[in-house]
Amino acid sequence: MRDDLHALLDRLAFRPKSVRHPPVRTVEEAHLHYAGLEGAHTKNAFLKDAKGVLVLVTVPADCRLDMKALPALIGSKRLSFASPDLMRTVLGTEPGALGPLSLIADTRRQVRFALESSLLEADAITCHPLDNAETWVIPQGEFKRILATLGVEPIVFSLKGAVG
Known about the structure:
Elements: H1 2-12, E1 17-20, H2 27-34, E2 40-49, E3 54-60, H3 70-74, E4 79-81, H4 84-91, E5 111-116, H5 118-121, E6 124-127, E7 134-139, H6 140-150, E8 155-157
Parallel strand pairs: 2-6, 3-5, 5-8
Antiparallel strand pairs: 1-7, 2-3, 2-4, 6-7
């Protein structure tokens, strides 16, 4: 999948700023290595609703996901975490490396993408490129171009007032 991701970047003539670091599995671990990078840091969850619909949710790294409030915000029913095996199969991504760029592997368009609205207001976001030992800074315009090229229309939701 990384070859597909690099081919996409070549087509878009985009080279992201990146930083290599030891593999990280949590936001807290990641901040030790890239807290100085510009852009809104993100965290991600791979979820499945009561009907089996898969959802990749991306929120600012400092947000707490309220799993009871989230379904109503994204137009879904009860949500639970999908298995790591399902993430590997559908998104070609290992736990700890999940992010919006994982959608490149979703060639069958099985995964809905839900994005917290403040990330669309940020000048740039940071995310892993299918590898939790690297982090990329993606300017907002490039992020939107990547999603459009992948044919991904995000479900945009706001956590303002919905988190504790």
